Fold this protein.
Amino acid sequence: MEYEEALLKKKVTIDMLQEFTHMQDTLIEYDLSIEDTPNLVNALNNAQQLGYDANAIADKISTIESLEEKEKELKNNLMVSQDELRIFKHAISLIEQEIDKRQLTSAVYDKLQNTGFGLRELILWNNIIREIATSNNIDSSMAVKK
C-alpha cells in the first residue's frame, strides 16, 4: 500500500517501471550499470553533437588518444628534464665549490707574490724539497711536512 502510494505521488506507472527494468537489463547485457549512466549520457551527447557521424566520432576518439599519448610523452620528457636539471644543479654546485677553492688559492698566492715569493720561487722550493726527500729516502709528502 505504501509503495503504491509513493508511486502515485511520483506519478510512476507500471510502464515506466517496465521500461526501467528493460533499460537495466540492456545495461547489464553490455556489462554496464546504472552508475555508468552519466558517462553513457555524456558519450551520447558528444555523439549527437557530432551528428552521429561514425567517421567524426572515430576522428574525435583518435584525436583524444593521440592527445593522451602526447601527454604521456610530455610527462616522460618532463621527468627526464627534471632529472637532468638535478644533475646540472649538482654539477654547478661542484664547480662553484671548485671556484671557491681556487679563489682561496689565488688569494694566498697573491699574498705570497706581494712578499716577493712568486711562481719561480715556489718551483725552486718544490725542487729543493724533492731533492732533500730523495736523498734522505723520505716520501715527498712527508718531506713537505717536515
Summary: Residues 46 and 57 are 8 Å apart (CA to CA). The helical segments are 2-9, 14-29, 37-49, 54-114, 119-135, 140-145.
